[in-house]
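Running co-folding for pyridoxal-5'-phosphate.
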Amino acid sequence: MTYQNYSLKQLQEIDAAHHLHPFTDHKDLRGTGSRMITRAEGPFVYDSEGKEILDGMAGLWCVNIGYGRNELAKAAYAQMKELPYYNSFFKCTTPTPVLLAKRLAEIAPSNMNQVFYGSSGSEANDTALRLVRHYWALEGKPQKNRIISRNWAYHGSTITGTSLGGMAAMHGQLNGAVPNIVHVMPPYAFELAKPGESDHDFGLRAAKAVEDAILEAGAENVAAFIGEPVMGAGGVKIAPDSYWPEIQRICRKHDVLLMLDEVITGYGRTGEWFAAQSLGIEADTITTAKALTSGYQPLSALLVGDRISSTLVEKGGEFYHGYTYSGHPVACAVALVNLDIIEKEGLIDRVRDETGPYLAKALDECLAGHGIVGEVRSIGLMAAIEIVKDKDSRARFENGGFAAATVRDHAIAGGMMMRAVGDTMILSPPLIWTKDTIDMACDRIGKALDLAERDLRK
Ligand SMILES: Cc1ncc(COP(=O)(O)O)c(C=O)c1O
């Protein structure tokens, strides 16, 4: 690789001169320089200094089968040689997106039999929004176009993704969101439950906020509710058990479509192929991306329920929407092999029966009692650790976000890659983690918490 002819310092200088990073304070980056990850194997990534780091984030919630899988490289190579690209517009297509669509219909909830491809989760959510509004227009109800979403939701970073999402800072820079999207409270009991309110009651109250928004707009004006089954980038916020069944009931009662964003939870993270299956809910669209290829290729698939797809076929008329790379043959070839690996290695069963429960127990036994931990929670291989100054009152440290950033910095320095969202530490590792890997992670996180507590209480 040609980068090996460059020193780290040279690469950092070129990076600073020419490369604008996503979600970055560019002034700050100029001061620190970037961390250069140069290779990876199994559950570990290695930086340009050769430092081994246990990847607690599966890249960016995507490398579910871990790094260094030759089978995927071979699939990409073979497909590139045979047919590197052709489009799926104008009544054409290529074999791999066709076969992948069949495979997705087999593993998806039974009412999901059609797939629309893109290259990213943001694109897939753009498709989802357009498709849902198109559906109601075809049904003769074009005014039924409002979408209910939630504060703290993350649905991507295009204008549509940002508008659907509920990230205040992102909205602050939007300067004109996609119209007719409203946001309600998220099911985040740790901060929003009232004193003495049970999880069950809080879940029902958070769901009622959705119903209130529907009633306020008038159900005849509401197209859909969109939600991540577990809010990921917003801080692994796991809804109480009472929440999703109630959301399903409310959507059915008011004839409002249910759009699930499973860009993070899709392909095994919660111990089923999709979190919809873990939660027992039936959606009209499911947005997926990331682990569809374990991040080895950019690819998204919007799974479309029979209700919408049958209207598209019955009513006809062109849906004016698509991307050059919709159904990219190489990305789809890689996805097919990735799904085979997930299945053959039993990774999903392992998350459901073994590593998911073990992670929950390990977090509880090793970290929940720590002096700056207010709560640990997890579902499958997805977890959050709330950082607090006072365990009883759940009061946070000053300078919101500084405490978790301190933990994160110590964690990375100690060989543990994890992320901080506000004052919440989050984990979403590759599904190949074993009980030993979980023990290693808890040990490293525990040490980072100790060092951070020492700094923060000074
Ligand atoms: C739930 C969810 N939806 C959508 C997206 C956007 O995906 P992408 O970054 O591929 O556009 C993300 C990315 O993290 C996500 O977590």
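Result summary
The longest strand covers residues 112-118.
Residues 435-456 form the longest helix (22 residues).
Job closed.
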